[in-house]
Amino acid sequence: MAIREHIKYNPSADCIEGLEDCGSGKRTRQLARYALVFFAQGICRAWKQPLAYYFTANGVSAQKLQCVLREVLDAASKAHIPIVATICDMGTANVRAIKDMGSDINNPYFVHNELKIFTIFDVPHLLKCFRNLFRKYNILLPTVTVATQQQLMQARWSDIKIAYEQDKKNPLIFRSLHKLKDFYLYPVGQTAMKVKVAAQTLSRTVSVYLYNLVQQNILPPRSLATATFIQEMDELLDSLNASARVALDGKPFKCIVSEESGHTSFWEDAFRRVNQYKFIRKPDDEFNAHHWKLPSQRGWLHTLRATTELWKFLKTQGVKTLKTKCINQDGLENLFGNIRAGCGSNENPTVTQFIGSLKTQIINGLTNQGLKGTNCEEDELTLLSNLRSLLEPAAGVSESVESMNESSIEIAGTSLSNYSNSSAFAVDIANAVEIGSLQTLSVAYVNGFIIKKLFSNFVCDRCSYILSSDDTEPCNQFISSKEFSNSKNKLFYSSKQFVIAVGTGITVLENKLPIICEKNNLQDVATNLLNQEIDFSFITCEEHFYFLKDFLLKSICRIGIPWYCTRLVRNLRSEASRQISARTKRKNFA
Predict the structure, then answer these.
(1) Pairing, β 278-280 against β 34-41
(2) How far is Cα 338 from Cα 125, in angstroms, rounded to an integer?
(3) Which of 33, 32, 50 is nearest to 41 (CA)?
(4) Which of 170, 267, 283, 408 has the highest local Cβ count within 10 Å?
(5) What is the pLDDT of residues 91-132, one digit of tens each?
(6) What is the pTM of this model?
(7) How many CA atoms lie less than 13 Å away from 116 in the CB half-sphere?
(8) Which CA distances in Å does 32 have to 27, 62, 354?
């Protein structure tokens, strides 16, 4: 699932959200653009459960996907969730990963902890891919029955266009192909991704209508190949995406798999037919047919063989029936829809929004939100566990520091970040504080905020004398100008040594964050670095030395880390706006 580039500091987890995170501490400094979710659902019983989620910058490599998949399988095994099959689309990394793990068309499984895990490709996704191939190529079918004879004939996408145009000429209100629309024949963008567009185009209704046009000599006999191909695709979808206990009339395989349903023999015959398909780019040029299997064709073959072997395995485990609808990605796609709806119908939520919405959906039991126009059917599954433990607050969060209103704090200027040696810029900061340089005024103002939060629940005259000063210090000019009254000071004024300490700390943090931003326990890591760079000798209150030191370090981190994230996000937005503006100018110029 695509997500938006955005980072935000999470004080509860003590990490920056929005960076690439592949679990087990494998975080990088790259911004996340995709969410990878592992989702389990029952075969014998109607349940579902999100298992894990990860964030990647540029998709996931096949090697990394193998590692993550095995981690998830191990975790599922420890939770006593027996995994018998994996379902995924035909993304390049997915195909490569299962191939490297030992799965192929002849042996559609890999072995994990001495158990066979069958690998199946998502059938609705396969249908869309095959539709796209059909638009690009003619398909040579070796077994088309014409007048009781088997002939080699080509299925053509153009036959569907002719049939649709013929149906639109019907002078009566009712139409045979009433579900088809103009854009179904020329799908682009979001339309091309909708399963129903492919399913309704390659449906039994279209196949029957083509047969009728051939019978009335409106289409030539060669169009029987197109009708035959569409009927085969319709039956394949029925057999691999069914949940009804009893088959409908005219749809013998649109029901659950059982010993008497005939699915196994149908799949074996379908495997033979699909294996013989040849794709021809130029019309009527059978010599230019592809003699190798195209990816989607291999996907059908792999899925047919894997589903057949899975059913054989389940029968040995005492399973009497199988809902093939349970071995597709509808449950996962519905989860993505719920996550987007939970973010205010946001198609590309941020990492923080994704995590928050996912937790909300799980706690609410992944209930149906009545979404219309979704890209998949309702999965009719119930959540295995709502993970109410997600509601428990994280331990170890400092309430006094966490309550700081980060949005009201702004550290102006970036000139303090131009140093690499802390002792060097500490001297320069001290000189700037002494003369009341503009770049130190905002630091003093932030110090006043820290002093206010500190002494709201803490009283010590000695500490107050160390950290505070009067309004005559040059670095406090900005605070003095912001006073509400000339008769009484209501704002807090910082001492020069305190300004130097915080200025040094925030500069060190700015220099180090691009290097340590991917770390877990980020505040602890940053605090240790700051502790080595800041001179705390100005704190002469022995009773509260360590308390003040710890409070100041945490304050710098709680203010500096979120502000670092905010500035980076602003830069991302500015760059995106600049690119949009440049594209608009080029378009207008053209």
Answers:
(1) unpaired
(2) 20
(3) 50
(4) 267
(5) 999 999 999 999 999 999 999 999 999 999 999 999 999 999
(6) 0.79
(7) 13
(8) 10, 18, 12
